[in-house]
Structures
1.
Amino acid sequence: MIKMAKKLEKVPTGVSGFDEISHGGLPRGRTTLVSGTSGSGKTVLAAQFLYKGIVNSGENGIFVTFEETPMDIIRNTKGFGWNIEKMTKENKWAFVDASPDDTDNVAVGQYDLGGFLARIEYAIKKVRAKRIAIDSVSALFTHFQDPGIIRHELYRVGARLKALNMTCIMTAERPTEEGQISRFGVEEFVSDNVILLHNRLNGRGERERTIEILKFRGSGHDSEEAPLIVGGEGMSTYPRPKPQLRGKGSTQKISTGIKGLDELLAGGIYKNSTTLVTGASGTGKTVTTLHFVMEGAERGEKCLMIEFEESPGQLYRNAFSFGWNLKEHEKKGVAQLICHYPEDLKAEQYLRMIQALVIKNKSKRLALDSLSALQRIYGEEKFREFVIGLNAFLKMRNVTSLFTNTTNQLLGITEITETHLSTITDNIIILKYVELGGEMRRLLSVLKQRGSMHKKELMEYEIGPKGLNILGPFEGVENLMSGSARKVEIRFDEEEAEREFMKESTKGRI
Amino acid sequence: MAGKNVLKLYVTGQTPNSQRALRNLENILNNELKGLYELKVIDVLERPQLAEDDKILATPTLVKILPAPVRKIIGDLSDKEKILLGLDLTLEKEK
């Protein structure tokens, strides 16, 4: 009879995001080598694997430390809110202390690592451990002069841990970011599973850490490098969302909160669609956002508003001036306002934060004001990843979203396609200033609505006492989209108007 | 030298290395350092906590605590000169 090979069980690491790319965690009962240059986060990963094992899975752990003392590790992880000292007292966590001391070591004749193995086994028994981290095996090679013995002994340690069904992380030093996987070629005899931690300088002179699964023998994993961040409550990774997570389209329309706009959109925007409102500073993007949020809140739909441009105080005041009590909705729990400086967090962290909030609050509408604030900070590639990641997540959760985008140009046409935004948004609404007859007027137009008819008229609007109010189509004028319109009948010196405007604008708000 | 100093020899059970180390060491103690040292043999399989306290990785390991400095000599102790040198005992021997 043929015995079916049992599917390899995985052990969750508790490193958020990593368990996704590793399809569940580290292979149970096996050793995984974690190799990386100095400062790439090996010790944190090893410690977190044990810490989360105790907290989340009730699996006790052994930390074998060759470089830092147990006291160092306890102190250095306190910042994450971890109390490892308490865990050692509760016999959930045990250290095997192999950190350097000041005694001299002389080798005379044959030896093995019997003492090391005995201490490991003793510690395992003492706390009934299921997990073990050895940080780092490279130190053994510098501690003892004979690499042949150490190779052999490490092999023996690995075999013993396997026999005890221990899930093990061994860390190894990588000399440089390129070239060999680990110093002394540890990966060749220690493990079938190899994870690389990268720590590189990016184009803007910032350190960027990533994690990559090089191989998991007999077990699935993603092969891309995922960004890694150490801070807050430990280490987190941020894998890109998978394309198959795209949600299905909806046929149900919901209101934007602006009556005239809903008419242009033939009844509103589709549920779970993405809308981009783009316009220069002062055209009313935040007001549009508030309309969208208040409309949802008043219907009892949970709304989340992420604000990067204004403070909560300003926003409450603004909303109040249009007759909306945003605070009241917040108290009731239908609306939630998050105001941040975009510099506060990295793109991946914002993505995680928004995802966590949407899940926690079961949000149905999300407004983000503005995307351009993030774009300014993150640079093109990170920004694109953020937008695509967020969008995929929102589609999957059936959240209807509205993003704003601030254009630099006050008049004229802005290239939306340049910002990668056009392809992922379902609806694009343009707000802009036009100069007409020596006056600044405001123009709204629906540039596209995916899967639905929409009116293509150019509408005039005002920001009135009840928010954004659509007055009606511009009539009898042409060349509106260029920014400087003219009445059809009247001759109009465009260049003169341009000069006039420049003069105006140097005095004004631009 | 006042009083007896203790040498600890950490071994793993009855492995050939351990047995060789013990034989070699007893030889030295009996012939070269008569009565100077008391030897304690510790099996790491039976007393792992002691191995933890003395931070023993390799076996066999000979530990000399006193006189300072603490010295560890690992291996089967097959070279007498090196042992004596390692224990800072060359002078003692000449006396």
Note: The radius of gyration of chain A is 30 Å.
2.
Amino acid sequence: MRVLNRIAQFYIELSRNTPLLIQLFFLYYGLPKLGIKIDGFACGVIGLTFLGGSYMAEAFRAGLQSVAKGQIDSAKSIGLQPIQIFRYVIFPQALAISIPAIGANCLFLIKESSVVSAIAVVELLFVTKDLIGMDYKTTEALFLLIMAYLIILLPVSILTSYLEHRSRKVSHGT
Amino acid sequence: MELDYLFQASHLERLMWGLWATAKIAFISVFFSAILGTVLGVIMTSKNIVVKALCRLYLEAIRIIPILVLLFVFYFGFATWFNWQFSAMWVCVVVFVLWGTAEMGDLVRAAITSIDQHQRDSAYALGLTHVQALAYVIFPQSLKRVTPGAINLFTRMVKTSSLAVLIGVVEVIKVGQQIIENSLLTVPSASLWIYGFIFILYFLICYPLSRLAAHLEKVWE
């Protein structure tokens, strides 16, 4: 378990302390030199997963650690198996506690996906750059860019704060 | 042999110069964000509904738009609309200060409101004015609660300043790209090594900072 803990910690620190842009550049421009060729879209998905995984892990860790010790003891005393304890006692409570952080991470990842334009994946920002470059329609392109992000992100943001309000009411036992 | 060529002294020197350009953006932005953010944080604790709503709007607007989009709007948009031609580096600083002020403001607000009400009451009972109460009672106590978050914000700024390359600032990644293009014929695998090296450079800067923040958080809890 100690080894697994070390590996997990190493991964989390590595992905949290380096910029997504350089992770993507390494995947997209660096790895082909080792014979590993991945197309831009896949690089974007891998890069964002590598980044998001560590943020989500931290969110869950905080949730799991904040479940009261008494809850686990009580579960043991009524004869639940370790897996049952996790499934029916710890996990539901941890999830409720983690929800605000998970929501924030979702927003963060959607926002970070704009960086993927740097490795030639044709997404919102890339198209905007194209429009500015080809048609000189800077104002229109930038306006649409912001509106598009608002249309994507506002519902997520509202849903997150709704869930946050709901989840505050479901913590048991201190 | 190839690596000797790739990581020769002059290349390393240029990479370090690029890193300094990145750090400069982060330092200047953090400096102004800390000052303006503290002011915003105090304003955000105001009881006036209009002031509160305006601050909230500013914070949410900055938080919901990706930084890269803000960089684009300021760099391309402002040049078109108002004919303001800033250098890309200053556009970065302005965007990071706007972002940092919002985040810092929220940190300061959270810290100030977390100080017990009786601290404030006692200060007023001693006859301190509002400003004195803030300066001598509230701030010194909130400082401990703000610092870890502020260091984390600084780390995020160092990481985010890598985006500067996308609007044309010559910083560590750009220098890396120049070296890669220049050595392409001599060292075909240059991109692997240089990007790997920059990856490690960023890690070496950000890791101690985030450890420091985590450590302070634990010690001061």
Note: Chain A is about 75% helix and 0% strand.
